[in-house]
Write a structure and sequence with these properties.
- The complex is a heterodimer.
- Chain A is an all-alpha fold.
- Chain A is about 75% helix and about 0% strand.
- By secondary structure, chain B is mostly helical.
- Chain B has 13 helices and no strands.
- Chain B is globular and about 90 Å long.
- Classes of the chains: A mainly alpha, B mainly alpha.
- Chains A and B meet through α1, α2, α4, α5 and β1 of A and α1, α2, α3, α6 and α13 of B.
């Protein structure tokens, strides 16, 4: 059927497969470093220390799993919403292999200690240049597909896709500006507080343009597909879209509250972060209202369960985020484990749950088969949900406890605890977090097994019935 | 309407994104690192310090250690003078970090003697029990200084041939320690910001044997790493048969010394400092 409509879905298969590989790497490394924090003997210097592995974890997660699967679904969604095949399937294939090369090079160079140190922009300039090439190919291919589309109206998902393409390009180019010293070493083009301000404009908008707009594009496409009823309000989607991409870019400096960057930049960031609740929750309510009369599907349809839990975590995330952006609260919890707890609710809860649903929906259709086991999909759901909640909740408690201890004073005004006295109290929470990671990993393995059986089943089916 | 015109849409979306970008990211270049905020005593890195900084970056130390002291009581009392933008003008990249798995290092320079850092880097738990920092004993390897001159040129830092020659025979650990001793130490805050001890200094626990167990516990947590178990001395001097008056010992522990001992007033407070004083004075060679 897909072949008849001229959709190039082989490359979608490729991106989904490889994004799952990198996702597994990200979680494996994540589990390892969570154990390293609790048991420092597990650091194996020089290559396998926490300091070198943590960037591999974040890069494999955000770029390998996140961007990899976004590329898959952008191609899948764009073809269907434009009723047009990919502009150049050949280029898309080249893009897949360059993408894999970039992620593999990233993992190797980071383990070797080639690292720019700027969070989520750690890759040295040759690898970063390769990322730029991949992105340009991707953007051209998607935009050209949209330009020659056969469906005049662009559905809201395509808006988020277009915004992602330009947003990521601007962010990545500016923050990766470097002064090269050799092939493996460069220095940031900006200095001190300027570098910090550029970095967190980038860092926070990587959250916007990588971890918000792409999953929203996917959510807006797959929720109606999964439930069989249209999205509640297109108009609310329009308002939310423009206000979201307008406001997000002001908020980077909420990562720099109390740091030596101008006060007004911090205040603007704080104000816009709070204002962002509105467009974020517009998307959440758009999801919820679309479920009117359909809530029974939460029991019957595992895809809906993934999607609605995903958007719910997005809602929680976009309330917690703005609260952390307020100076007084930031003073308390910034630099503690509260923040990794927050981040992982977004990545494991929101982004990954939506991606799981999209993969469950898409792969059987591309391979012309049914999912191998809905029961396993449900087990997968409960395992990753439990693992993620163990992670986030233990880290929130750890963060509040450590912050309270760091702030405790004696009657004479001196501080009651030394840093180490506060840190050693966090070990039990780190053990729970590591255990949560293991549960999550187990869930991921169930997912991969289910997908593998689905695809393997489709192949034997195909062999049994030659066309 | 624009949902039917992808190119127009793309341009509009770009413009929308650029508003906040220009106002909060581009425009601040006008004010941040303004010459008016420069601090004359802040100097660029020497080749050895820069190599140390690059090792700090290579090992990803910034994943666990921040380098900004916020103007908050719990930060300033724990780490020292709050950070100023003028202190970072030579930092490409900045290393402020985002998470304190370990303590902030913005004021680490001059806090401990070199020997403390060497022992701590090789085996963190020998100096800080229950620390979760990886051991960096492998940094004992020779420093690769083949790029040093190009690095100094790339960053426009002044250097002499003697600076470069001095790199020969150094280890990575030497460079790391040189860097750590420079961090946050370019402004003279340790002298001016030293915790002042006001009022008459009289030990409230003099001859009070009941505080000795607590004093001993505090000693083993905060002092033994440098002065050894049993006060026999290691990085710091032997403390047995201490003949200084209680008030002088209090002053040293509370405020630190120029000789390299950090002050413990911020983390111990007066009461616990007096208990440590009482314990130290009670220990004698047999």
């Amino acid at each position: 059927m897909n072949q008849q409509e001229g959709y190039a879905d082989d490359v979608v298969k490729g991106f989904i497969t490889w994004s799952m590989v990198w996702g597994l790497v990200a979680v494996l490394v994540g589990v390892l470093i969570s154990f390293q924090i609790a048991f420092p003997q597990l650091n194996l210097p020089p290559y396998l220390t926490y300091g070198r592995l943590r960037p591999i974890h974040t890069n494999a997660g955000i770029f390998g799993w996140g961007i990899g699967s976004f590329m898959a679904f952008f191609y899948y969604i764009t073809q269907r919403l434009t009723r047009t095949g990919i502009w150049s399937p050949g280029l898309a294939r080249v893009q897949l292999w360059l993408f894999n090369l970039a992620i593999a090079l990233a993992a190797v160079t980071l383990a070797l200690g080639m690292n720019r140190s700027k969070e989520y922009a750690e890759l040295e300039w040759p690898v970063a240049s390769l990322v730029v090439v991949v992105w340009v190919i991707f953007a051209v291919n998607i935009v050209m597909t949209i330009v020659k589309r056969r469906e005049e109206q662009m559905y809201i998902s395509l808006w988020y896709i277009l915004a992602t393409l330009v947003g990521v390009a601007v962010l990545y180019l500016v923050n990766n500006a470097s002064i090269p010293v050799s092939l493996t070493k460069s220095y940031s083009a900006y200095a001190g507080a300027n570098d910090a301000n550029v970095q967190w404009w980038y860092g926070h908008n990587a959250v916007a343009m990588v971890l918000t707009t792409p999953p929203l594009a996917i959510f807006y496409y797959f929720l109606p597909k999964a439930t069989g009823v249209p999205i509640y309000s297109h108009r609310m989607g329009v308002i939310a879209f423009w206000s979201l991409i307008f406001m997000y870019l002001w908020t980077g400096a909420h990562h720099l509250l109390w740091a030596p960057v101008p006060d007004w930049v911090q205040t603007l960031a704080m104000a816009f972060s709070v204002m962002l609740i509105a467009p974020s929750w517009a998307a959440v309510f758009n999801g919820y209202f679309s479920m009117n009369g359909q809530w029974h599907q939460m029991r019957e349809n595992y895809l809906v369960k993934f999607l609605i839990f995903g958007i719910t975590f997005y809602g929680a995330q976009t309330l917690q985020g703005p609260s952390q952006s307020i100076r007084t609260f930031s003073a308390f919890i910034h630099f503690t484990d509260w923040v990794p707890g927050h981040v992982h609710m977004g990545t494991l809860g929101w982004v990954s749950l939506v991606l799981f649903a999209a993969i469950y929906y898409t792969l059987p259709r591309i391979y012309g088969t049914e999912i191998y086991s809905i029961r396993l999909a449900n087990i997968h759901f409960w395992l990753v949900l439990t693992g993620q909640l163990m992670f986030s909740i233990s880290m929130w408690i750890a963060g509040v406890q450590q912050a309270a201890m760091l702030n405790a004073t004696n009657p004479d005004g001196s501080l009651h605890y030394s840093f180490m006295e506060t840190m050693i109290e966090i070990y039990p929470y780190w053990h729970i977090r590591a255990l949560g990671g293991v549960v999550y990993l187990a869930g991921l393995c169930v997912f991969l097994y289910n997908i593998w059986k689905t695809v393997a089943g489709a192949k034997t089916q195909g062999a049994a019935q030659p066309a | 309407m624009i949902e039917k015109k992808p190119i127009v849409f793309l341009l509009l979306a770009t413009a929308t994104i650029l508003v906040g970008t220009v106002i909060t990211m581009v425009v601040p270049f006008r004010w941040i690192n303004d010459p008016k905020l420069a601090i004359a005593s802040v100097k660029p890195y020497t080749p050895l310090q820069l190599e140390g900084r690059d090792i700090y970056i290579r090992e990803g130390c910034n994943n666990c250690h921040t380098q900004t002291v916020r103007p908050l009581l719990s930060d300033v009392e724990r780490y020292g003078e709050y950070s100023k933008s003028g202190e970072f003008v030579y930092d490409q990249p900045f290393l402020w970090g985002s998470r304190r798995n370990g303590p902030d290092l913005a004021r680490i320079g001059g806090k401990y003697p070199d020997a403390w850092h060497v022992k701590h880097m090789k085996d963190p738990r020998s100096m800080v029990p229950r620390s979760n920092m990886p051991a960096y004993a492998f940094m004992n390897q020779p420093l690769d200084s083949s790029l040093s001159e190009r690095k100094m040129k790339a960053l426009n830092f002044p250097y002499t041939q003697a600076d470069l020659d001095a790199l020969k025979g150094k280890t990575e650990l030497d460079a790391m320690v040189a860097y750590l001793q420079k961090v946050g130490n370019d402004i003279p805050w340790r002298k001016t910001g030293r915790a002042a001890v006001l009022g008459e200094l009289k030990n409230p626990y003099q001859d009070n044997m009941s505080v000795l167990p607590e004093g001993k516990k505090l000693y083993s947590e905060h002092c033994a790493q440098c002065h050894g178990e049993g006060l026999k001395g290691e990085v710091g001097p032997d403390l047995r048969d201490m003949d200084k008056p209680d008030a002088a010992v209090f002053g040293i522990i509370y405020s630190g010394t120029q000789a390299g001992m950090p002050g413990f007033g911020d983390s111990l407070g007066k009461d616990r400092t007096w208990k440590v004083v009482t314990y130290i004075k009670s220990v004698h060679r047999r």
